[in-house]
Amino acid sequence: MNVHEYQAKAILKEYGVPVPKGHAAFTPEEAFAVAKELGGPIAVVKAQIHAGGRGKGSFKEPEAGEKGGVRIAKSFDDVRTFADEMLGRTLVTVQTGPEGRVVKRLLIEEGAAIKRELYLSFLVDRATSRVAVIASTEGGMDIEEVAHDAPEKILTFSIDPASGYSQFHGRKVAFELGLEGDQVKQCVKLIGSLYKAFVEKDMSQLEINPLIVTEKGDLVCLDAKLNFDSNALYRHPEIVALRDLEEEDPAEVLASRYDLSYVKLDGSIGCLVNGAGLAMATMDIIKLYGSEPANFLDVGGGATKEKVTEAFKIILSDPNVKGILVNIFGGIMRCDIIAEGIIAAAREMSLKVPLVVRLEGTNVELGKEIIRNSGLAVIPADNLADAAEKIVAEVKKAA
Ligand code: GDP
Ligand code: MN
């Protein structure tokens, strides 16, 4: 789960991490008021969307001005003008895709005098089962680009969870970043605080780009991007409360409400499957027969009639879906219950695309009978290959 920059900075601040003073604003008047409270002389107006690259981004509407999603304001009136230009307009960055994101919130911050821009991030490294630390002197830029063009400028190491953070980790980063004097001390403290926040809040990613050295010589986190492990959210209600559903794909939001694992893809065949492994196999075999899956969807082991109905709705909300393949193994879940769910959903949705159903497992005969007797134009299949071949053929026929 992602949060906005202003929320990320508030969390880090609780851990004693140095961030600029600032506040969120939802209207130009609020932005003006925040700037006044900060006192100036310089304020930064930052678009809050769940995507980076805002500084170099551009707005779709010409009225939004040409200055991107991070603007330096030299007066309180400028803050109001910039806020007015940005709010409600669509910001396109390298990370938003061509459709962009509508800006609904802003962060108004005190301006920082930048001497150097550095890069720092933490992430869960699955290969070593540890928290990896990545640091580079090339801050403010796209780190993938640095990794490609100048990999020697990136320091990577991991922290052993058993022994945890030690000051030498911080000194290693300080040395790599070319810090000196009191900055080394600040860096040791910073890395320690970030590590503590990362572990305690169950983050999967933390990126500070840029971490700056100010003209005065202090370290400040000028940008912050946090990602939280969704499997650990149950123990962080304070993080869940920060969720901004408007930043997420509506179908994925609906799916998470019904505890369905759904990922939208670009193909034309909707898949309704139970079990992640079976879902992967189903997607593979659709490709093998020459078509593309429209989604990954795992209804889970305990799928109810309601869940199956919602799953159908979610699949059909995607206009690219030209056919549906249901592939269910009734283990804990009985095939007759699944069959009833499929029929209820197909009726409720007045299904207009071909539907191939492959059931296997407990009560399979009863399940098939329920589908046969439903009067719906469901195409039964006997095994996975048969099912894939049939749905691909149906979709090609309709095209
Ligand atoms: P991103 O483009 O979405 O990653 O947004 P950032 O928060 O990283 O801002 C982009 C760039 O704007 C930074 O790399 C800085 O160069 C610049 N910037 C942001 N805040 C300030 C500030 O307070 N003062 C100055 N001078 N530049 C800033
Ligand atoms: Mn940034």
From TrEMBL:
Coiled coil: none
GO CC annotation, single: succinate-CoA ligase complex
Residues binding Mg(2+), per UniProt: 209, 223
Catalytic reaction annotation: GTP + succinate + CoA = succinyl-CoA + GDP + phosphate; (S)-malate + ATP + CoA = (S)-malyl-CoA + ADP + phosphate; succinate + ATP + CoA = succinyl-CoA + ADP + phosphate
Occurrences of domain ATP-grasp (ranges): 9-55
Cofactor(s) needed for function: Mg(2+)
Cofactor note (record): Binds 1 Mg(2+) ion per subunit.
Gene3D superfamilies: ATP-grasp fold, A domain, ATP-grasp fold, B domain, Succinyl-CoA synthetase domains
Keywords: ATP-binding, Ligase, Magnesium, Metal-binding, Nucleotide-binding, Tricarboxylic acid cycle
Pathway: Carbohydrate metabolism; tricarboxylic acid cycle; succinate from succinyl-CoA (ligase route): step 1/1; One-carbon metabolism; formaldehyde assimilation via serine pathway
Biological process (GO), any one: tricarboxylic acid cycle
Subunit structure comment from the entry: Heterotetramer of two alpha and two beta subunits.
Purpose of the protein: Succinyl-CoA synthetase functions in the citric acid cycle (TCA), coupling the hydrolysis of succinyl-CoA to the synthesis of either ATP or GTP and thus represents the only step of substrate-level phosphorylation in the TCA. The beta subunit provides nucleotide specificity of the enzyme and binds the substrate succinate, while the binding sites for coenzyme A and phosphate are found in the alpha subunit.
Protein name: Succinate--CoA ligase [ADP-forming] subunit beta
